[in-house]
């Protein structure tokens, strides 16, 4: 058992430098990196991507067992969108109730909180034997978008 734990530790520690940041971080403007670091000071395992529209996307985790997060930042350093994976139990009651009413035969697979400026939405992946659905709700439980996945 000790050998297994030791091997797992070695495997994990050997991979940490690789996961730290994507090499393309050198191409990200300092204003974007500074804005990101101010907004998310505890971000770990950051991977940067430049989008076709000129914005920058950072995928990252916060904390030891952090949930996946994504931030889209303008070239001027403004955080445009922040997506954060959340537990389904953290969804607003109105969203949970709407899921029960509209999608009673489905099981919640994954949930995200999406902040765009001052607006907050929740995207939920639902699944059952017939297929998977992605549904976006506002905080009041109103369905904003629904599609088969």
From TrEMBL:
Record domain Putative beta-lactamase-inhibitor-like PepSY-like: where: 24-62, 82-145
Pfam families cross-referenced by the UniProt entry: PepSY_like (PF11396)
UniProt name for this protein: Putative beta-lactamase-inhibitor-like, PepSY-like
Organism: Parapedobacter luteus
Signal peptide residue numbers: 1-20
UniProt keyword Signal, yes or no: yes
Record keywords: Signal
InterPro entries: PepSY-like
């Amino acid at each position: 058992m000790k050998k297994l734990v030791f091997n797992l530790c070695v495997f994990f520690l050997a991979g940490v430098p690789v996961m730290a940041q994507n090499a393309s971080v050198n191409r990200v403007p300092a204003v974007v990196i500074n804005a990101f670091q101010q907004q998310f000071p505890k971000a770990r395992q950051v991977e940067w991507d430049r989008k076709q529209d000129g914005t920058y996307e950072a995928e990252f985790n916060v904390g030891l067992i952090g949930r996946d997060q994504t931030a889209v930042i303008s070239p001027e350093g403004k955080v445009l969108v922040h997506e954060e994976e959340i537990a389904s139990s953290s969804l607003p009651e109105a969203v949970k109730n709407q899921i029960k009413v509209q999608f009673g035969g489905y099981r919640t697979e994954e949930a995200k909180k999406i902040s765009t400026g001052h607006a907050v939405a929740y995207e939920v992946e639902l699944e059952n034997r017939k297929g998977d659905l992605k549904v976006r709700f506002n905080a009041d439980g109103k369905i904003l978008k629904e599609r088969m996945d």
